[in-house]
């Protein structure tokens, strides 16, 4: 066949070929380029070109591995992917897009020089903040102080926070009310139900969840106990490492995974329960991290088999009744990682159906990402807001009072969307777990 | 001409819609067929005037223009094989209007085919052509390739629904063909000439399609045959019984085995053929018709039949057909999907020939497709990285085309010729046929700027499914 486009090709670079295994070059051949992923991809819709579609990205990874394009050419299309994996759910040939994306991020992380500022920011986020229970606790406390002391209102009024980098000021406005440090430290690490123990579970607290969403974690544990579960909160657990893996920091991701596997395997529980769609999606893929370490892969496999989203466990235990009428129009924004990676789809709907007084209005396209996507909304603020705008168009049609989510990132993002719409007095986003508690969930006798 | 053509284009098109980054160019270098061809620019047009300006520049500078929808083509229709510019119409979706009283819909080129059908359904109407990519593909792409689909059996293909077009000619002039009437015999039928011309005669900028009243209900059944000849007889006896099903889809034994290996579905793996039949129409009539079809297929020797009682059961039967794609993809990664079509009476013979070809070249081949209209989809699963295997596949594909033509059939029922089938064109239409087609092409497009490299083979061109 003729190929007059050849003048555009780079010299086949040995360096790129060296990366073939790491970038999952072989897996790119599973893509038959049928294009069925195009309508499912949020960034293809908002960025309006094939370069930002799953099929386009897979092709670019292949072109990189064949030495036809450079790491710089690959960078933007990969960084602008939300990683929502809606494409993997729709794909008729089961392409492992998640692994191709993560492979590409790992290689880019190694290949591309970083600016100094980027290094500092990443160092703080990945090495200090997320893995450290102390830091996250401190952040929790600090934000509590910031909010309860009235500093927040003052800062907002004077617009002081708008100079903050990474648009953190936008998200600051939608942080939930936080419990006091005393409340935070009062939490018991081992709780038993009043009646028969139906299951023994370990609760994965997560780092963001356990700082900013401490109350949701507390509610989660309460619901599990009310449902008849004995709940353990292992102290040595750490950040799941999802954000590290999604940013190409595979070494760090492995270290965190090992610590969690070690910690949880000691507890001898039936399930390892989490309440954050993004964390759960990473926990359930721990075995992918250890392709080259068979012993760890086996241990990871055993861990993975026990990982459950809290909605699954609450449905399975079936031990709750609800005493408060909710009497609101609600809608549900599923977490992409819960739908497309964990494949947990029905349980949240089943729980919502049980709530008394609820009018449930389904979004037209619930599986379209909200644009939160881990820390995508911080790193790619403008692009994330374009995606959010599409989501809010859908939400506006449904006119809910409550937007239910199952992931902290989605929760903040949806609240940001509501605030941007000036709707915060009429609408709010709420974690499923918190809504169950508001509806007066208690153990059935 | 002091400035180059890219600069000239940027004077008439918003720069944000003129893509020239390496990552963008590579992202428009492929479609769902084979080969990577990097264009020199991608231009995302949104209006007729933009197309006029760009095509005039292309004609002046003699730069190839490659119209492109969502690039789901299986024949290479949108590949920019000679560089130049890709004209992307996917952002051009502003018009989608149903004229209920005329049973007509007017749409911009970038509107998705499924969206057209959805708009029609809101008026109790429907747009029958249903390529499996309808939820992805653009209407202009469907027109260019003259797409079909399962419903082709009863309702025909894309060309049977296009009654009017607005086209920008290769010289940058705006032409209207046909109109909004169902009957129109005024002059040569230029509308139908454009449909299926694969973008070689001009750029479609607006389409007028006729619609039909939406059937009130559908009914589905599955029939299992030990002998492929009996399946063939079942098809022809059904079609001559006075009942015209909306779909008759066939899966061969290799398909059933692949599906069962991939995800057990309860399909019989020892039967030679499975046929899925859908009837549509008034619910009362359907009850009687489905019973008649059941009697017919049992009469010619079906081992057993399954009649779907509910819509859910029907959906479940069709799911088995849908599973074929992922199931065969799990066998080997590269899929060569053909659409050679034979007269209906020749289906059993074609399937025997396909099995001979499978044995001869030691390839993984399954057959499924729209058996009711003779449009089979022999799919070969292979691995692009295995050069030796791909050479065998290339020879096998050549022989599949040969078999189709010998049985009085055609190279392509619905995928188009593109690059992949161009080398075989003359075998079907003959030397004079090619000459007449070329005369038309030359008079419409004197500078050969519109999608060059398609339909007509380059001197010495052969089927190549390997990279490089």
TrEMBL record, chain B:
Its cofactor is FAD. Its EC number is 1.1.3.15. The keyword Oxidoreductase applies. InterPro entries: FAD-bd_oxidored_4_C, FAD-bd_PCMH, FAD-bd_PCMH-like_sf, FAD-bd_PCMH_sub1, FAD-bd_PCMH_sub2, FAD-linked_Oxase-like_C, FAD-linked_OxidoTrans_Type4, Oxid_FAD_bind_N. Residues 35-214 form the FAD-binding PCMH-type domain. Keywords: FAD, Flavoprotein, Oxidoreductase. GO terms for molecular function: (S)-2-hydroxy-acid oxidase activity; FAD binding. Gene3D superfamilies: 3.30.465.10, 3.30.70.2190, 3.30.70.2740, Uridine Diphospho-n-acetylenolpyruvylglucosamine Reductase, domain 2 (3.30.43.10), Vanillyl-alcohol Oxidase, Chain A, domain 4 (1.10.45.10). PANTHER family: GLYCOLATE OXIDASE SUBUNIT GLCD. Belongs to the FAD-binding oxidoreductase/transferase type 4 family. This is Glycolate oxidase.
């Amino acid at each position: 066949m003729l190929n007059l486009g050849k003048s555009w090709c780079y010299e086949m670079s040995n360096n790129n070929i060296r990366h073939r295994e790491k970038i999952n070059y072989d897996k790119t051949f599973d893509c038959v380029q049928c294009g069925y992923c195009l309508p499912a991809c949020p960034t293809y819709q908002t960025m309006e070109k094939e370069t930002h579609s799953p099929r386009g990205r897979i092709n670019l990874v292949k072109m990189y591995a064949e030495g036809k394009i450079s790491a710089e050419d690959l960078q933007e299309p990969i960084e602008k992917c939300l990683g929502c994996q809606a494409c993997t759910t729709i794909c008729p040939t089961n392409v492992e897009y998640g692994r191709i994306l993560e492979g590409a991020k790992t290689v880019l992380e190694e290949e591309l020089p970083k600016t100094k500022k980027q290094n500092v920011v990443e160092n703080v986020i990945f090495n200090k903040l997320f893995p450290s229970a102390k830091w996250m606790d401190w952040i929790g406390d600090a934000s509590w102080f910031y909010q309860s002391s009235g500093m927040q209102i003052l800062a907002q009024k004077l617009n002081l926070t708008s100079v903050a980098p990474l648009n953190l000021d936008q998200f600051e406005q939608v942080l939930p009310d936080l419990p006091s440090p005393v409340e935070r430290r009062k939490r018991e690490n081992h709780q038993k139900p009043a009646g028969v123990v139906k299951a023994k579970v370990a609760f994965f607290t997560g780092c963001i969840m356990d700082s900013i969403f401490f109350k949701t974690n507390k509610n989660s544990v309460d619901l599990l106990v009310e449902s008849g579960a004995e709940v353990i909160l292992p102290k040595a657990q750490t950040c799941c490492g999802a954000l590290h893996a999604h940013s190409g920091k595979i070494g760090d991701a492995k270290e965190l995974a090992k610590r969690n596997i070690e910690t949880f395997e000691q507890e001898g529980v039936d399930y390892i329960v989490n309440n954050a769609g993004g964390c759960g999606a990473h926990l359930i893929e721990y075995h992918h991290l250890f392709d080259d370490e068979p012993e760890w892969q086996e241990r990871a496999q055993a861990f993975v088999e026990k990982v459950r989203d809290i909605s699954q466990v609450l449905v399975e235990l079936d031990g709750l009744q609800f005493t408060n009428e909710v009497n609101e129009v609600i809608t549900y924004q599923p977490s992409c990682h819960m739908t497309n990676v964990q494949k947990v789809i029905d349980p949240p709907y089943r729980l919502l159906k049980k709530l008394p007084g609820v009018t449930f209005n389904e979004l037209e396209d619930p599986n379209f990402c909200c644009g939160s996507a881990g820390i995508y909304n911080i790193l790619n603020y403008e692009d994330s807001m374009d995606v959010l705008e599409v989501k809010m168009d859908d939400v506006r049609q449904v006119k809910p009072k409550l937007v239910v989510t199952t992931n902290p990132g989605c929760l903040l993002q949806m609240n940001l969307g509501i605030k941007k719409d000036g709707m915060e007095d009429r609408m709010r986003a709420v974690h499923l777990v918190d809504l169950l508690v508001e509806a007066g969930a208690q153990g059935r006798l | 001409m002091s400035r180059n053509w890219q600069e000239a284009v940027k004077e008439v098109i918003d720069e944000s819609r003129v893509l020239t980054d390496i990552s963008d160019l590579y992202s428009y270098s492929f479609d769902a067929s084979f080969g990577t061809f990097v264009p020199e620019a991608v231009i995302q047009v949104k209006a007729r005037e933009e197309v006029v300006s760009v095509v005039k520049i292309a004609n002046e500078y003699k730069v190839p223009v490659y119209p492109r929808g969502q690039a789901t083509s299986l024949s290479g229709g949108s590949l920019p094989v000679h560089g130049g510019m890709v004209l992307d119409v996917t952002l051009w979706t502003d018009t989608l209007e149903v004229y209920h009283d005329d049973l007509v819909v007017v749409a911009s080129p970038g509107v998705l085919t499924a969206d057209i059908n959805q708009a029609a359904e809101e008026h109790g109407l429907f747009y029958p052509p249903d390529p499996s990519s309808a939820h992805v593909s653009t209407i202009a792409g469907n027109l260019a390739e003259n797409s079909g689909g399962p419903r082709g059996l009863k309702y025909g293909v894309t060309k049977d629904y296009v009654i009017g077009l607005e086209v920008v000619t290769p010289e940058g002039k705006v032409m209207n063909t046909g109109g909004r009437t169902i009957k129109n015999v005024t002059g040569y039928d230029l509308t139908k000439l454009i449909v299926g011309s694969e973008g070689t005669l001009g750029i479609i900028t607006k389409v007028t399609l006729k619609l039909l009243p939406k059937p009130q209900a559908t009914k589905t059944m599955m029939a299992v045959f030990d002998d492929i000849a009996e399946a063939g007889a079942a098809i022809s006896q059904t079609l001559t019984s006075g009942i015209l099903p909306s779909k008759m889809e066939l899966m061969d034994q290799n398909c059933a085995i692949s599906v069962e290996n991939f995800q057990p579905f309860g399909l019989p793996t020892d039967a030679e053929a499975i046929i899925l039949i859908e009837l549509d129409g008034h619910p009362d009539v359907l009850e009687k018709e489905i019973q008649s079809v059941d009697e017919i297929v049992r009469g010619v020797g079906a081992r057993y039949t399954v009649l779907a009682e509910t819509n859910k059961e029907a959906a479940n039967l069709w799911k088995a057909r849908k599973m074929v794609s992922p199931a065969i993809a799990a066998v080997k990664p590269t899929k060569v999907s053909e659409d050679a079509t034979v007269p209906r009476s020749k289906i059993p013979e074609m399937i025997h020939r396909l099995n001979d070809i499978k044995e001869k070249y030691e390839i993984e081949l399954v057959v499924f497709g729209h058996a009711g209209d003779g449009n089979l989809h022999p799919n070969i699963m292979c691995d692009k990285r295995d050069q030796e295997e791909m050479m065998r596949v290339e020879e096998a594909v050549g022989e599949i085309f040969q078999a189709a033509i010998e049985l009085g059939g055609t190279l392509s029922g619905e995928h188009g010729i593109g690059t992949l089938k161009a080398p075989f064109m003359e075998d079907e239409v003959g030397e004079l046929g090619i000459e007449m087609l070329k005369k038309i092409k030359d008079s419409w497009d004197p500078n050969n700027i519109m999608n060059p490299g398609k339909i007509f083979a380059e001197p010495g061109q052969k089927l190549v499914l390997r990279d490089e």
